[in-house]
Each structure stands twice: as structure tokens, then as C-alpha cells.
Request: fold
Amino acid sequence: MINYQCPRCGRQFTTTQPVANVRCPYCGNEFNVAFGQQTPPQFGPQYAYGGQPYQRTDIGVFDAGPSGKSRGVAGLLAILLGAFGVHYFYVGKTVGGFLCLLLSKVTCGLWEIIAIIQGIIMMTMRSEEFEQKYVYSQSTMPLF
Reply:
């Protein structure tokens, strides 16, 4: 058994036969291996910081998380249509969406400023934080 680490996704896997070109079973990336040793990646999610390698495990902004909701889509909805509470309807918080409509009406549209700030925060937070705070929380209208 020969252990390899994919330079694109950073996952480790094993193969039974030494070959020159190895294909990652997770992401499909094909990379060259010289004399049984993995060539160092030129680009990819693995970087050295202070001599210690680390893996970037966060997914992209517009990639859907385990719940099927994307933090990028929710953030854009909050920035563009936050006064109408569309981002709360998107994540399944219908009461929060109706409260946004009411607050927008009462404040003559000033609630949109809060929604824009919330959208920026949604797009900059990690996916795990987004899922925990906005999708899986018991809060009716989670803010910042």
C-alpha cells in the first residue's frame, strides 16, 4: 500500500500499485509521482505556514452546505432584498421574514441597512458558523 496526498483537495488515499500518474478518487485530480514520492503541489489548498502544513477545509461561498443552503446566496439576498426578509425565507425562518417586512415598513426602509450589514457578515463567516447560526438555530430571527 502506498499513501498519497492530493495536491488539489488535500485528502489522503492509498493505492496498491506504484504508478507515474495518480488520480485522486475524491476530486479526480491527476498528478505526477516520481520514484514513489509525491511531487510537491505548486497550487492548491495546502500551504506551509511556519513549516507546518495545514488544510483549507472551508467550502466556497456559493457552495451549498449540508443543509442545502448556501451562505453566498443568503448573503446576496440579504444585501439586495433584505428589506423584504427574503434571506430569512431562504433559510427557512418564515417568522423572521415577516418580521423583516414589518420592521422595514415601520422604519420606512431603514431596516435595509441592518440587512446589508447582515449580508456582508453572512458572506464572510465560515460555512459551519452559517449553518449553526442561521439554519439550525432555534432563533426566530437570528441577527449578527
